[in-house]
Amino acid sequence: MKRHQHYIAGEWTAPADGEYFESLNPATARPWYEAPSGTSVDIDKAVTAAHNAFEDPRWRDLSQTRRGRLLRNLGDLIGEHAEELARTETLDNGKLLREMRAQLAGLPEYFYYYAGLADKIHGEVIPGASRELLNYTLREPVGVVGAITPWNSPLLLTATKLAPALAAGNTVVVKPSEHTSASLLALAPLFEQAGFPPGVVNVVTGFGATAGAPLAEHPGVAKVTFTGSTETGRRIARTCADRLVRCTLELGGKSPNIVFPDADLGSAAMGVIAGIFAAAGQTCVAGSRVLVHREVYDEILDRVTARASTIRIGDPLEDTTELGPLAIAAQLEKVESYVELGLAEGGRIAFGGARPTTDLDGYFFSPTVFTGTDNSMRICQEEIFGPVATVMPFDSEDEAVALANDTTYGLAAGIWTRDLNRCHRMASRLEAGTVWVNTYRSMSPMSPRAGFKNSGVGTEQGTEVIREYTRLKSVWINTSEEPAGDPFILKS
Predict the structure, then answer these.
(1) Which of 279, 1, 13, 239 is nearest to 151 (CA)?
(2) How far apart are CA 36 and CA 181, in angstroms?
(3) Residue 456: which residues within 8 A CB-CB, separation 6 or more?
(4) How many CA atoms lie within 13 A of 483 on its CB side?
(5) Active-site annotation holder among 34, 240, 247, 284
(6) pLDDT band at 128, cuts 50/70/90?
(7) What distance in Å separates the CA atoms of residue 186 and residue 212, rounded to the nearest whole number?
(8) Residue 491 pLDDT > 80, yes or no?
């Protein structure tokens, strides 16, 4: 079994206390590598390396265009190592290999996009009342960024943080989930191969309490970016507030997927399947609350349950598999507990609701469809993060909006309709950072993502994200050569 090390200052580094932990393959429930159990000592070493790299002229004085060139080099290298990276993540978190191959085919685009954006980061000249005063702004990197990333999509969700952070000139310390460290450790050496100076990107593995918390608390970290649960996000927000540093939080969701009677019902049913059963439901934007107009409720329910019954569950490395395991044992137990809770609350299972029979010993759970629920039930309000959908009827557009917005979350929403006017009405009324119409789970590095309510703080992706990774400086220059005037009067 392979034993990994931290990646600090361009070198593989053993943990300070010599402790390691096993990571399990979720398809087999067997350990397949060891990762170092990072502590505050390891975090301090990585933050120091990142700070030194930030001040190093090789990075600090690099032109923005050349920074972009390094990001493009990295994108090329990711493309060359796509199969290895895809297979590594599949072994680590159970995502379908064919899904990961598709994801890796698009992952270089994130680095290409921010490569092109790197030398478009600039300030502006501000007009003033006096022509003698020149006022302009600068956008500068914030410094060392601490990135704490989740287990459901380590490579993609780390890329959405790394690419803009580096384009803006920052350095980064990544603390991946203790459940899925392998793909980030496989990615780490590509930064040096791409030409980034040592220490610009560092990876320290370990647990939240002993590595994640010290990273968020470290006085050398100027910004924290986190993707994960709302509960953990609140703790990080409190830490950052105490330190008066920035944070970006992409948190949970309980997203509605809304079907109107004029929709293409075949496509809508497939959109429901994709929204909740892709990636075994382990996505922040999972369309877990399916709201269907009463006129087509029975037909959509029949279509969804019929397709759910044919979903092929098994080894995620096999091309024919459509649903792999949940990523960790605790998540399987959580999903099972919510299914039991849903039944206790009065819900009925139209399909699924149990562990399937497979030839593997991993953390598999059948695609599950609940009916007989109302939006006040816990399974309709709390994030399950698994392949469990609740299908509820509505009678009017207003009722659909009310049900959709009746949640503490606001990450995403889906709408299925052929009515163009309704598309725009609904998009403006739904309390969600992303609204999809006649599609679901579409994503691009060019499109910003933000969460409303308990789904997060700040923005990821698009040009808007550069604000998250830069600080704004206002510069005033007096161009006049006249003697200074009255020192007690404000000059403007």
Answers:
(1) 279
(2) 10
(3) 233, 248, 249, 250, 251, 411, 433, 450
(4) 2
(5) 284
(6) confident
(7) 20
(8) no
For 113, list phi and psi in degrees, rounded to 5: -60, -50
Q: In the annotation, is 284 catalytic?
A: yes
Mean pLDDT, residues 88-116: 97
As a whole number of angstroms, the distance between CA 205 and CA 211 comes to: 7
Q: Are 202 and 231 in contact (CB under 8 A)?
A: no
pLDDT of residue 269: 98
Residue with tokens 């759910």: 308
Q: Determine which one of 89, 250, 322, 383 is catalytic.
A: 250
Q: For the chain, how far is it from start to end, CA to CA, in angstroms? A: 68
DSSP string for 233-279: HHHHHHHHHHHT-EEEEE-----EEEE-TTS-HHHHHHHHHHHHHGG
The confidence score (pLDDT) of residue 220 equals: 98
Residues 6+ positions from 211 with CB-CB distance below 8 Å: 37, 38, 39, 40, 42, 43, 175, 204, 205
Q: How far is Cα 333 from Cα 214, in angstroms, rounded to an integer? A: 29
For residue 94, what pLDDT is reported? 97
Of 380, 408, 359, 382, the closest CA to residue 291 belongs to 380
Q: Which of 406, 325, 421 is nearest to 93 (CA)?
A: 325
- Given a contact cutoff of 8 angstroms between Cβ atoms, the answer to whether 90 and 317 are in contact is yes
Average pLDDT of the chain is 97
* Active-site residue, 240 included: no
- The partner residues of 249 in beta bridges, in order of sequence, read 226, 457
**Residues 384-434: tens digit of each pLDDT:** 999 999 999 999 999 999 999 999 999 999 999 999 999 999 999 999 999
pLDDT in the model for residue 486 = 87
Angle, helices 82-93/182-194, rounded to nearest 10 degrees: 160
Q: What single letter denotes the amino acid at residue 275?
A: G
